[in-house]
Write a structure and sequence with these properties.
The chain is 38% helix and 22% strand. It contains four helices and six strands; from the N terminus they run αββββαααββ. β5 and β6 form a beta hairpin. It starts with 7 loop residues before the first helix and ends with a strand. The C terminus is likely disordered.
């Protein structure tokens, strides 16, 4: 089975107006301020940043081709090593919210 690419138009449509999404573990939220061709723009009280389209697309390709883990903890470490050492946890939250890729937490799949 070949990896299914990230539908960037769907990402922009979903996040262009901004929103708050739940974290992988729950109990907190991540603020998304918008999305465009460059990436998904995020902020918290201390910083602002962009999860780039290139990085999120690469992460989905790696997970769907089984070269990165779907486990949240392992995903974050592998994202830092294989994709970018920038906002790996935030990337996991966004991909979980997009339901891409499916991520498991404590043996329970969160995405399906």
């Amino acid at each position: 089975m070949s990896p299914v690419p990230l539908d960037w138009d769907a990402v922009v449509t979903k996040y262009s107006g901004g929103t708050r999404i739940p974290t992988v573990a729950g109990g907190k939220t991540l603020e998304i301020t918008g999305a465009d061709d460059a990436g998904v723009h995020i902020r918290n009280p201390l910083w602002r940043d962009t999860l780039t389209r290139e990085h999120l697309t690469r992460a989905v390709e790696l997970v769907e081709s089984e070269r990165m883990s779907r486990d949240p903890g392992l995903f974050v470490e592998e994202y830092r090593a294989l994709v970018a050492d920038a906002r790996a946890t935030s990337a996991a939250h966004v991909l979980k919210d997009l339901r891409r890729p499916p991520v498991t937490h404590r043996g329970t799949e969160l995405m399906r």
